[in-house]
Design a protein that fits this description.
The structure is a homodimer.
Chain A: E1 4-5, H1 16-25, H2 37-57, E2 64-67, H3 70-75, E3 85-88, H4 94-100, E4 103-104, E5 114-119, E6 149-153, H5 165-168, E7 172-176, E8 187-191, H6 217-235, H7 238-256, E9 261-262, E10 273-277, H8 283-292, E11 295-296, H9 312-316, H10 321-324, E12 327-331, H11 338-359
Parallel strand pairs in A: 1-11, 3-4, 3-5, 5-6, 6-7
Antiparallel strand pairs in A: 2-8, 7-8, 9-10, 10-12
């Protein structure tokens, strides 16, 4: 059976550029910490990838710390400073929410001595949150509410929407390689020049002393190549075509199932993500039925699959339990075709009609 | 110029089996946390690798937690239990020493409520330390000195000497893939069934809730294949041949430079490691001269390259500052040939004679 992969927000297929870079890196025998020629060659490859990632993220190479993914990057900031509270946006990814949840996103104005942690683009809905810094140059919490630091989870945003760390106003950013076509298990913490954090791991002193442990050389090579290719695709307008396919999908679904709710439609969203609610039809059931029919989609972030029934993110947006448990996330990539979308909509609508008939 | 790589303790070349497994894994698009077919296929690959690593380490698959390397694995045990002290052997690797150094290796007997952390085989010298449990079934600190837990760093030992976690008496073990021919940036923490530790990272709840973050699927596939191949090589006696080459190297060096000290010679050592001291000739200088002549060797663990001049490990063994700064580590692999060894010895001896002539 033909499989159609529409779960790019869970993870994207490995880009050809990343594959080639990784296969080439397999021939480098050295440990980047070794001083001999083999070690220096491995180190040079890591530094080349650091420059590629920095260019894609819009920061300086020295601001990039390679990690084993966004989760580890978030963890490195769990305790940025003694006595320094971290407030987490209630729609943020579990990785941020669990690590950094010293306090929920504040309803009251914040004084100094705090960090705000938020996702730039939500993995479940694709909704883009404007960083507080960028709202008329004011924090939304009033003039006196300037938190010390802003942490942005840009995992779903980099390579899909224009973003540069340097003009984001953020002090930290976290991202992972596999959402932009690199390998799973590698990511980065971006730390603004001049900001000092304690290392999570010590020992060998790699990554300028900020993250010890022998580098994932092959994975880092893939991350760098994927980041470079993703930035090029974005500049070339590849995601404009994807946004049109996403709109075509939503039009087809809306026409056939006119009480479907499209989460975040009309506001700023990622170009590739559609999250829609068919009230009463459980998202998990939809995922299983579509999987059997050959389509890979999701009922929430992959990391929370099988763990929660009602989406915390949708609950936080004001949806009730039934609606929040009835959402499907379809996330497209640059390889997605019109045929993929039309077949998906046709199959989903047929199953939806059966659900309606049973429920009636 | 022909390059001869004799720095296997820093990192080993990627095994063909690991390369093939990694390239195959590149075709799996799914996130192991996703419930659809693509996700389940990625999950199955991770579980297959877990069984391969478990077989090589001699433990149950459920005792294997994949990490980004031995350093992260050590870090996960930095605070195994509130109020629980960790004592670290003074010759242990920096990763253990820095993370776990709540107290130095004790000279006094230990009461319960403590963890002993030690390296099974030293990366700089190859010297094998017998775990306390195995000395006549007694801890060396007396009958009342039973620590609660024993942590073994088996990074340099697995695949080179017979070892099984199940009979080691250890409660925890840490290792990395790249020392046994897998990729850099992946490793494991082995936790004895029934022992409970707090996760270092939370969020997605991967690795049975013990280590969150999307899995390094490609790297884990390489780790599994390399572990399986390493265990097979060990069973086939591949390292007996390596030990003969190591002895041949030491004989050649001793014949030409008869005041050289071979660290740990005569006691239990890894089959592939020779650490020798040419008093007064700095190890760093030796490394650079041999590098220029085409040989990759080391003056200590790769992770401490360029950071310390006198080896902490050799100091702990009783060598004075000058001797501890004059050590060279030559570490062989199963691909090392007699020709490699003889050319190395000839080149090293020629340079040593020049050093002696200048020093005289």
């Amino acid at each position: 059976m033909t499989r159609t992969y529409l779960d790019y927000n869970a993870t994207a297929p490995l880009r050809d550029e990343a594959r080639a870079a990784m296969v080439a890196a397999m021939d480098l025998v050295g440990n980047p910490s070794s001083v001999h020629a083999e070690g220096r060659a491995a180190k040079a490859l890591v530094e080349n990838a650091r420059a590629q990632v920095a260019a894609a993220v819009g920061c300086a190479p020295s601001e990039v710390i390679f990690t084993s993914g966004a989760t580890e990057a978030a963890q490195m900031l769990a305790h940025p400073r003694p006595g320094h509270d971290v407030f987490v946006q209630d729609t943020a990814h579990d990785a941020l929410f669990s690590h950094l949840k010293l306090s929920d996103w504040p309803e009251r104005p914040l004084g100094p001595g705090h960090t705000l942690a938020m996702g730039l683009a939500n993995s479940e809905t694709g909704v883009i949150t404007q960083p507080p810094e960028q709202i008329d140059g004011q924090w939304p919490y009033g003039d006196t509410a300037r938190a010390d630091w802003l942490l942005l989870d840009v995992t779903q945003a980099v390579g899909r929407i224009p973003f540069a760390f340097s003009w984001s106003g953020a002090d930290f950013a976290i991202l992972s390689a596999h959402k932009l076509g690199g390998p799973k298990g590698v990511g980065a913490l971006i730390v603004r020049q001049g900001v000092d954090i304690d290392p999570l791991t010590t020992g060998g002193g790699q990554e300028m002393g900020r993250r010890s442990g022998t580098e994932n050389v092959i994975g880092i090579a893939g991350f760098g190549a994927a980041a470079e290719a993703a930035a090029r695709d974005l500049a070339d307008g590849a995601w404009d075509r994807v946004a049109k396919l996403r709109d075509m999908l939503e039009d087809a679904i809306a026409t056939g199932a006119n009480n479907t709710i499209f989460v975040g439609k009309g506001g700023p969203r990622l170009p590739n993500t559609s999250c829609f609610v068919a009230p009463g039809w459980k998202g998990e059931t939809q995922v299983m039925q579509m999987d059997l029919a050959g389509f890979a989609v999701s009922a929430g972030s992959a990391c929370s699959s099988g763990k929660v029934r009602a989406s915390r993110v949708l609950r936080a947006m004001g949806f009730d339990d039934i609606a929040a448990a009835s959402a499907l996330r379809v996330s497209l990539g640059t390889a997605t075709t019109e045929d993929d979308i039309l077949r998906f909509a046709e199959t989903w609508l047929a199953k939806y009609m059966k659900f309606r008939a049973r429920a009636a």
